[in-house]
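Researcher: Next entry in the queue.
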Amino acid sequence: MARHMEPVIILVRPQMGENIGAAARAMLNFGLTRMRLVDPRDGWPNARAIAMASGAAGKVLDQAQVFPTLAEAMHDVDYCYATTARGREMTKPVLTPETAMADAHARTAVGEKIAIIFGPERAGLENDDVARANAIITVPVNPDFPSLNLGQAVLLNGYEWSRGRLPAEPAPHGRRPDAEVPATRLEIEKLADHWESRLDEAGFFFPAEKAPVMKLTLRNLWSRLPLTRADAQIFHGMLRQLIRRN
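Model: Structure for this entry, 246 residues:
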C-alpha cells in the first residue's frame, strides 16, 4: 500500500495522550501511518501516547505532524470525512465507514488526497470542524449508546480502508506457533506408539487376552483428539518424565 495514497488521520484537539497512542496502534494495525494532530491538549510529544502506542510509536507517532488549527492541518487535502455520531443541521452525505472507505479508494485512485478527522474524546467534533468536511461518517451502532472512544473509531475506519488490501489470513501457516498448528497424522501415530510402548512395559494392558482391544481403544482415542503440535510434544514430555521418575 503506497504511503502517499493513505488517508491522513487527523485528531482534532485530542485530550489524552493514551488515546492518541491507542489511535496510533489502530492505524498501524491496518497499514496507516499518516497522523496529524490539531492543538493536542497536553502538548506534543507526549510520553503517555508513546507508551500506549508501543510498536506503533516509531512508525506513526514519530512522524506525526502538529498544527494549531484544523484548517492548517487540511492544507493539502482534497476531500475530507468527519466522524460524528450526532445529527447535524448540515447538508452533507452521511456514510458508514464501509461506504466512506469505498468512496475514499475511488478518490485516491484518481489522485485525490483524503483525510478522516476525529474529534476530542469528551464531546467530539464541533460544528465548525464538521463544516470543513465534505462528508460525514457515522458508525451504525446501538442508538441508546452510540459513543465510541477515539481508538475504536480509528480502528473501525482503518479496518474498512484496509479490506482486501492486507493479507486475508493474519497468521500464515508457515509462521504459526506450534500451539496453533494441528498435529499431523504421523505425529499422532508416533505419540500413540510412544504411549502404547511405555504402557505395555508397565503392564497396563492386562489381562493379555484383552490387550488388543485395549490398544485399539487407546489408539482410537488419540486419533479423535484435536491435538496441536505443541499438545503432542507435551504428552511426549509427560511420559518421558514419568519414566525417569520410575
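Model: The longest helix spans residues 185-201.
Researcher: Noted, moving on.
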